[in-house]
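Reopening this one. Same input as before:
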Amino acid sequence: MTSVGNPILPGCHPDPSICRVGDTFYLVTSTFEYLPGLPVFRSRDLAHWERIGHVVDRPGQLDYTGIASSGGLYAPTLRHHGGLFWLVCTLVDQGDDSRGGNFLMTAQDPSGPWSDPVWLEADGIDPSIFFDDDGRAWVHGTRLAREPEWFHQTEVWLRELDLERRELVGPEHVLWTGALKGAVWAEGPHLYKVDGRYLLLAAEGGTEIHHAVCVARADTVTGPYEGSRANPVLTHRDLGRSADVVGVGHADLVQGADGSWWAVLLGMRPYGGYHYNLGRETFLVPVTWEDGWPLFAPGTGRVTPTVEVPAAVTASDDGATSGVVAAHDLRWTAVRALPQEVAVPHGEGWELPVRPATLADLDVPAFLGLRQQHRDVDVSAVLVAGPGPQDEVGLAVRQSEKQHVLLHVTGGEERRAVAVRVDDGSRTVLGEVPVHGGSDRVRLSVSARGQDYALLVQEEGAEPVHVATADGRWLDSVTTGGFLGLWIGVYATSTGRPTTASVTVEQVTYVPQG
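Same output, byte for byte:
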């Protein structure tokens, strides 16, 4: 056995779903308004994960127009059946209930290409798919209860999926309305068949401090389902807000080729108080079985900082790679558009056309970002640009269109590096320094140390100059709401004016510290 660190996917990788094909595991997570959408990871040992592609990775697959932050792609489920990878997911537009919904995609190779979405006539969110051993397939998900006993009670529904026509058929069955009386927001339901009985796994309590994993079982797939007397079978809500990991839930089970069982699930690591800037991350716990019920993290009942897995067989990738982040790196994301729709690869970096949209607009900004995956990290970008008097070219620490921090270089006769905090339409200057050199090349940096985000500018041949320090506690989702961790990246805007300007992003580096 090998001891590996938890989380197995640091940074904003929520709602993990996992399956195994042969001796290889595949995993996907939610991405909300960021594209490419739904990263696909591969591992041979459950410890080291390689990002091999994305499910939504070409123009036109899904319409992201006007999708607000924390909308977009919610809670995918990944399965393999009949030589195909199957994925179901929800596209959420919080501003327009008539748009989006639950959809199905398939691929022969999990790295892509994936099919265009097939929309399913199904309410709610968090769909999952189960392939029974009799050849039938079932889709299930969660929604607000049709006849609620309490506020925000949710229910898990089930319908058969016609695999040929790719549509839901037959009657609907309500399987579950919560393990505990008063429980809200059942999420991430999954069905399995173990030793001839059907197991329903679901989270409840909301994806914050009260998140919990619950289970039920039945003799037939349509129920009735009996809840475990041990429910919730995994939670950290009894540990309080000072715990190292909070909000544990949204689990998915997988059996290894050696017969061992495991669960991937989300959780958050607070620091600097009850704040989790890295967002909801993917963790791993072992699972055993007692009396026909799954036992999560036996012996501790906790998500621990390390976990013992079978001997590691591959080199680590995502979350450990540091240094220069080249344009071909699969970690790059953009907002409401694909990176290649926003910029053009240029050597190790990008040519980034300036756009009128700002990061505060519900539009496609000129922004290329990376998840913050480490509490202490230095992210820097070497930019070559001659911005106009009203242009902004620089780095951004993004929570949403409503809350972000900017470090940009101004144009005109008196060039300056300016740090700005944007809060729901208001802009506060945190600091500014003159930029004296005649070169258009400048290095901008974000140096995060816990909740302090130092913003620095460096001209050619000179030492870095501190512009301001932003308080990260103002940026995390505990303060702002929503479901996301932080992204750090380059941006360029003409602040609403037409423009043909462009910025050369020569190099971006991401270097964890400590």
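So the earlier flakiness isn't reproducible anymore. For the record, The two ends are 26 Å apart (CA to CA).
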